[in-house]
């Protein structure tokens, strides 16, 4: 019995991927990293810079990645930390660059050079960063609440609350007639907001 308890308490042996396998797995998450980066920053160029730096940091730390664990969640944590480091360095006000957000929301469709935003994406920019992030991770990224909580460094209940509040706020923003629109499309009434987020972010992933 003692031997069994000791075996259960024994530390898990660290197993790293080969460089070839690590590079292959890392390559598979690049489109999702780009989509997540654009969702956080609202800027395609900044997102691409974040992804590039994320890939470099992930490659440098490849020996610490445990084979069989979640590469996507691991790299999302790296990208998120890089983003907030840039936010702190640039001394943005609050949780989001209000000037950038205002410029994007006010820009005519033909002048949206850095980010191609649909109505939903414009509405997302108006949400608090924490709610937007939670919606993107759980609704579009397909992460479980537990995984999203690990990425954000918060409790599972906090993520659930952010998703719930973000969903309500997003619905309200989408119904706001003052929301700038870049297209006159069919009415999306009855379509799940999170399903729409999935479609929007998937489009970002394809548009590399």
UniProtKB/TrEMBL annotation:
The reply to whether Transcription figures as a keyword in the UniProt entry is yes
User: Matching InterPro entries, A to Z?
Assistant: RNA_pol_sigma-70-like (IPR039425), RNA_pol_sigma-70_dom (IPR014284), RNA_pol_sigma70_r2 (IPR007627), RNA_pol_sigma70_r4_t2 (IPR013249), RNA_pol_sigma_r2 (IPR013325), RNA_pol_sigma_r3/r4-like (IPR013324), WH-like_DNA-bd_sf (IPR036388)
Q: Which Gene3D superfamilies match?
A: 1.10.1740.10, Winged helix-like DNA-binding domain superfamily/Winged helix DNA-binding domain (1.10.10.10)
Keyword annotations = Sigma factor, Transcription, Transcription regulation
Question: Out of the domains of life, which is the source?
Answer: Bacteria
Q: Under which name does UniProt file this protein?
A: Sigma-70 family RNA polymerase sigma factor
The entry assigns this protein to a family as follows: Belongs to the sigma-70 factor family. ECF subfamily.
- Domain RNA polymerase sigma-70 region: start-end pairs: 31-91
Q: Which residues form the RNA polymerase sigma factor 70 region 4 type domain?
A: 119-170
The organism named in the record is Sphingomonas paeninsulae
Name its GO BP terms in alphabetical order: DNA-templated transcription initiation
């Amino acid at each position: 019995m003692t031997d069994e308890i000791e075996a259960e308490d024994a530390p898990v042996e660290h197993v790293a991927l080969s460089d070839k396998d690590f590079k292959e797995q890392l390559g598979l998450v690049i489109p999702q990293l780009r989509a997540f980066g654009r969702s956080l920053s609202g800027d395609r160029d900044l997102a691409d810079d974040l992804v590039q730096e994320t890939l470099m940091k992930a490659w440098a730390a490849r020996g610490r990645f445990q084979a069989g664990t979640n590469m996507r969640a691991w790299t999302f944590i790296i990208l998120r930390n890089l983003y907030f480091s840039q936010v702190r360095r640039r001394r943005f006000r609050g949780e989001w660059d209000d000037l950038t957000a205002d410029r994007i929301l006010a820009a005519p469709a033909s002048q949206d050079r850095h980010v191609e935003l649909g109505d939903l994406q414009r509405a997302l920019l108006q949400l608090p960063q924490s709610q937007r992030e939670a919606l993107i991770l759980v609704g579009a990224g397909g992460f479980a609440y537990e995984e999203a909580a690990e990425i954000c460094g918060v409790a599972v209940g906090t993520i659930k609350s952010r998703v719930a509040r973000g969903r309500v706020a997003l619905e309200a923003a989408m119904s706001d007639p003052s929301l700038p629109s870049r297209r006159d499309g069919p009415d999306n009434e009855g379509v799940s907001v999170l399903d729409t987020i999935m479609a929007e972010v998937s489009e970002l992933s394809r548009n590399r």
